[in-house]
Amino acid sequence: MTGRPPTPDPLPWPVVDNHAHLDHARAGEQPWDVREALAAAAAVNVTRAIQIGCELPSARWTVQAVAAHPTLLGGVALHPTEASALVTSSAVTSSAVTSAPDAVTGWKAFEAAFAEIEALAGHPRVRVIGETGLDHHWVPAEDVEGRAAQEESFRRHIDLAKRLGKVLQIHDRDAHDDVLRILDAEGAPERTVLHCFSGDAAMARRCLDNGWYLSFAGNLTFRNASGLREALAVAGPGSVLVETDAPYLAPMPHRGRPNASYLVPLTVRCMAEVLGTELEELCRVLDATSERLYGPW
Question: Do 297 and 73 meet the contact criterion of CB atoms below 8 Å apart?
Answer without folding.
Answer: yes
